[in-house]
Write a structure and sequence with these properties.
alpha/beta; 14 helices; 13 strands; globular; 4-stranded mixed beta sheet; 7-stranded mixed beta sheet; binds pyridoxal-5'-phosphate
Length: 384
């Protein structure tokens, strides 16, 4: 056995996205104890910067020591008790994962479906809440990674609150890439991931809980069935004024990486990061459309960081992706679930969201598809 040396790739799929060298360098710094006062000081900074990227003052804002799926589970296991009715707005793969979580918590999931590729229809949520007056929670995916659709989180939260429901939002793909305002929009429990628009390595899940969510957790009638994710226990380590009691050994170097990623977003400015994602998406769009490639999602609901496009007729999905990987070191994503074989998912996430990558991707696609016009259209777009 030899050391593992991965090839250098450019990651333009649905995530993970390219990790900035500054973040990798931060992660290689010396490991110190997870209760070391210096480390605890860094944890506080991570919390403060997460509050910034989430646009919240929630004291209970922290990274769960596991990937986005654990952040998802953290929200559901803490808020859903056996017998609770939870409305899930589903418009892609990740809504079905919510259903799985709720069922395993002993809750009753009420599914409100929209077509894949469409944003969630607020009217359907309103109707479902009227038909299910005992519903306690409304859950939805803000940015559906399987289709590239962005939903109107503020409107969904407003409707949920009018019916006295708490809200759970999946923002794994949206955080850092599009506007997201936890407090202004009234999101009660939110989870995300580090491997997309934060440009960090996978394996951590930023979460945040409102006071109302915290109140619900504290007044549970039954204990949370997951020991590791029980926030009542986790708060002893991450919580406000916590004595930082041992709960689990924190992923120390991974947290150095997240700290650096957050410092970089602070330096750029959150709104500038959102604007950068929008800018390069428009250039990529100009190029793709010039090549005759069409988008899955209506223009108004498109995620700039996840461009889902229809694979042109007669094109071999896997052969093109393999060619891009082998000849250009470029990874784009395949379709998931019912979209497998029908679409490509081209990510422009975090540090990978750049003019260089837009031009490279278009040039690689021109070669693989034997077409032209994409690079030129994007270049014209950039010239304004
Ligand atoms: C919308 C959404 N939710 C949840 C997840 C799960 O995150 P992870 O793979 O980090 O566990 C993903 C991952 O791609 C996602 O895109």
């Amino acid at each position: 056995m030899n050391s593992f040396n991965p090839p250098v790739r450019i990651l333009m799929g649905p995530g993970p996205s390219d990790v900035h060298p500054r973040i990798l360098e931060a992660m290689s710094r010396p490991t110190i104890g997870h209760l070391d006062p210096v480390f605890v000081g860094m944890m506080d900074e991570v919390k403060t910067m997460l509050q910034y990227v989430f646009q919240t003052e929630n004291p209970l804002t922290m990274p769960v020591s596991a990937p986005g799926s654990a952040g998802m589970e953290s929200c559901f296991v803490n808020l859903v008790e056996p017998g609770d009715e939870v409305i899930v707005c589903r418009n892609g793969v990740f809504g079905s994962r919510m259903l799985e979580n709720i069922t395993r918590c002993g809750g009753k999931a009420i599914m409100v479906d929209d077509a894949w590729g469409k944003a969630i229809d607020p009217q359907k949520l309103e109707d479902a809440l009227k038909a299910n007056p005992n519903a306690k929670i409304v859950a939805f995916v803000h940015a559906e990674t399987s289709t590239g659709a962005l939903s109107d989180a503020k409107t969904l939260c407003d409707i949920a609150h009018q019916h006295n429901c708490l809200t759970i939002a999946d923002t794994v793909t949206s955080l850092g890439g599009v506007e997201l305002r936890v407090d202004d929009w009234g999101i009660d429990a939110i989870y995300s991931g580090t491997q997309k628009c934060l440009s960090c390595t996978p394996g951590l899940s930023p979460v945040s809980f409102s006071d109302a969510a915290l109140e619900a957790i504290k007044s549970r009638k039954t204990p949370v069935q997951s020991w590791f994710l029980d926030l009542n226990l986790v708060m002893g380590y991450w919580g406000e004024n916590a004595k930082r009691a041992y709960h689990h050994t924190a992923p120390i170097n991974a947290l150095y990486g997240l700290h650096e990623a957050l410092v970089m977003i602070k330096e750029e400015g959150l709104e500038n990061a959102w604007a950068r994602h929008a800018k390069h998406h428009l250039a990529l769009r100009a190029g793709l459309e010039a090549m005759g490639i069409t988008f899955v999602v209506d223009e108004a609901d498109r995620l700039p960081q996840l461009n889902a496009v229809n694979i042109p007729d007669g094109v071999d999905d896997a052969a093109v992706r393999t060619q891009l990987l082998n000849e250009f070191g470029l990874e784009i994503g395949a379709g998931l679930g019912e979209m497998a074989g029908k679409i490509w998912r081209i990510g422009l996430m975090g540090t990978a969201c750049s003019q260089r990558n837009v031009m490279l991707c278009l040039s690689a696609l021109e070669t693989a598809l034997g077409t032209s016009g994409g690079v030129e259209a994007a270049a014209t777009h950039y010239k304004g």
